[in-house]
Amino acid sequence: PGSNSRLTESLPRGVERKAAQPRLMIALPNQGTPAPVRVPVLLARQQSIPLVCRGSGGASRLHYHKQGGGHVTRAELVLDARAELAEGPCWLAGKEQLLWVDIMAGRVHHFDPTTGDDRFVEVGQPVGAAVPASDGRLALAVRDGFALLDLDSGRVEQLAGVERELNGNRMNDGKCDSAGRFWAGTMALDVRPGAGSLYRLGPKRDVERMVTGVTISNGLGWSLDDRLMYYIDTPHRRVDVFDFDSPAGAIANRRPFVTIEGPGWPDGMAVDAEGGLWIAIWGGGKVLHYLSDGTLAGGVEVPVSQVSSCGFGGPELRDLYITTAWQNLSPERRAAEPLAGGLFRHRPGVAGQPTQVYTAQG
Q1: Which member of 102, 173, 233, 267 is catalytic?
Q2: Whole-model pTM?
């Protein structure tokens, strides 16, 4: 995704691929760009200031109104993160924390909703997704492929390369299936049509290309019976669905599931415990809720145009966390959207599903 007028998640010009070590960063609220500090522990932290977002009508999260397709409610800000491109929220049940990434900054965050504390580790390259791994580390989809991150030490171990010969590509959104395989896709930095692919990382570090001709690989999800896989290639303005063979990890028979009418483009998504889809709309300032039969059931308004993804969290998985971005907003638009790049939350009245874990072997 990109701005309201363009689809782009591009790397700034002149940025080259180079190896970099994780480093500690200290982020102080409302103080601009943090500066690196040399200390032994490779963690950073910032304190959130919980706020209730108010839109042009001054309505809080308790405001309900009818708008075609069901009830639309408003999200609340829980972390004024000011991230350039926040993405991939997923719940770490063992830690009672929310995992999320700031893609182009190469930062993997973990946010504690109880204390409002947010910490991050810089991994030295753009990171499109982070998910928990079975050995206690995190599995990452980074620019160069798949990797593992130890949050305590900041150590990154490369698992498998993906498209390392393509200097103009990077990895984007990703999720794990119920068998512990990690799915993540790629895109070109200049958003060339069809330059990316969707990949599947197996437990033995084997990587297989599953879909080719992708432009901006984004949201993933599975039906409750594990027979369908949902997938978003953003510029198509729709959610597609595949038949899914869970034991084999195979997909087939791709077809449209729902088409997203403008404004905005579909980005990341989450599937709730009733099989409904929650789809972040980049450039549309909202998350749309579709039932498992494709019926539009409502949505969540966000006071930021570039809504990037969403995921369920909280002790009972009843909180929908929503990531946003300020990437490619003009100075005028950034001034009009002071909360761009923030982390939001909404309680939709339905629970989510537990985060699936990457099963690492060997």
Answers
A1: 267
A2: 0.84
